[in-house]
């Protein structure tokens, strides 16, 4: 065993492409050795998660790459940063931290990455082809890229994503290899009522359950309606990648590598079969709400858009609000790409009190009012991360519940939703 | 107990063993090294044992901050191979900042160690009780 490097790899390590490429390839090689890869492979594109500010170290790392002449060798999009560059003042960071966060974002654009600032690059035109090897970071984007687009990426962490982009090389391992992409666990969803399957709110809950149940294993879910649509798949994958380490899932009859059950399992029998019962999902839905919520149904703010809202989701929000003014702070997080497509709708949302957040979101940087409260969201990813990252308690609900609650200024729950 | 030395190194410290998967992003404060759920223990200086690293790919960045500001664990013991945290350690090495060993030990074997127990890890991945040996005094 051992890692086999090509002549061009060796030349790059020796500095033929400059010191930044050499440093980046040392990191790629180090990762390849950790993962037991036997070779590196060429990648077609990258999505870089490293531009979000966590502290000075991340900014200094990126600036080191810039100072040593780094330049991406493949098209690369950027994930969210810690600032909303289109709406200055929306983020409550002290000026010193904001300046460092801005330096980090600037460093990544100086490396040649596209300033897309979104966790959903697949909604901003970055859509690699079926079977193409790419290097993507951001757990929801990884799950979408592998599962919905059928392009091949490992779960790239910060640093490896930009290093792959700077070298065009990545470890030939994990989900790049066809053998690791076949399902091993079968989830039989045929027992779920068609009325439940028709609800958008099912899919983040199903994803959260999947991540908690299968960890990093590849599961195939059978028995869901064939017309799921990208927004539901996005919600499912984001949740599964947050509660677990899911980088790839298959939906039989829906996702490209699972036209039928046999193909999803590459002809092998499932290692495990799980029959999904509605009660399992009700338990998972309740886990997405903070346990200590008071009985008054108090809600202090509403947030949607993790992953970033698609144009279709923004338009659904506009339609559901139907010009009614919100009585609670309402945050809608999306990309600048989608916001540009909103045109007149963006202004009308602002007029009725909706706060549009672009380039970032409410859990990765301080946007919610200080002091905490109870946040209502239809995003399992927001629900999963908000308590620890923002200090806010969370109640999970459907988009309809989010909208009606925001308009009424108090919780409007729909108890019939899961019956 | 022999672990797989993914990023070898030798160190010692008190065990902090978690029995649930951990995401460093959203799970550990990058400035203080405190866990953001449960009783909020600090992972700084601990031999941190985790059955599985989960969640966001930003976890390596959180570890890089901890390595730079001196709040990192003394070593990371993960139940299964995961490159995301290892990347934070590789990046720290490139930046000339302190690095820590990363070893792989199955979750079932991690349960042989108790939180608070002093252990030593050597460069081959051997994890042993630190026993009688007193920490070297540095004036």
Your description of this structure?
The complex is a heterodimer of chains A (419) and B (139). Chain A is 39% helix and 13% strand. By secondary structure, chain A is of the alpha/beta class. Chain A folds into three domains: 7-179, Aconitase, domain 3, CATH 3.30.499; 182-287; 301-418, Aconitase, domain 3 (2-Layer Sandwich). In chain A, strand 10, helix 12 and strand 11 (330-334) form a beta-alpha-beta unit. The longest helix of chain A is centred in the N-terminal third of the chain and has 17 residues, at 19-35. Chain B has a seven-stranded mixed β-sheet with strand order 1-5-4-3-2-6-7, with no helix packed on it. Chain B has helices spanning 59-69, 83-95, 107-110, and strands spanning 4-7, 11-17, 47-50, 75-78, 102-104, 118-121, 127-129. In chain B, helix 1 (59-69) packs parallel to helix 2. Chain B has one domain: Phosphohistidine domain (Glucose Oxidase, domain 1), CATH 3.50.30.10. Chain B is globular, with a radius of gyration of 14 Å. The longest helix of chain B has 13 residues, at 83-95. The mean pLDDT of chain B is 92. Chain B is built from three helices and seven strands. Chain A binds chain B through residues 23, 26-27, 30-31, 34-36, 49-50, 52, 54-58, 60-61, 64, 137-139, 142, 154-161, 211, 215-216, 241-245, 363, 384-385, 387-389, and chain B through 6-7, 21, 25-27, 30-31, 36-37, 52-62, 64-65, 67-69, 80-88, 90-92, 94-95, 97, 102.
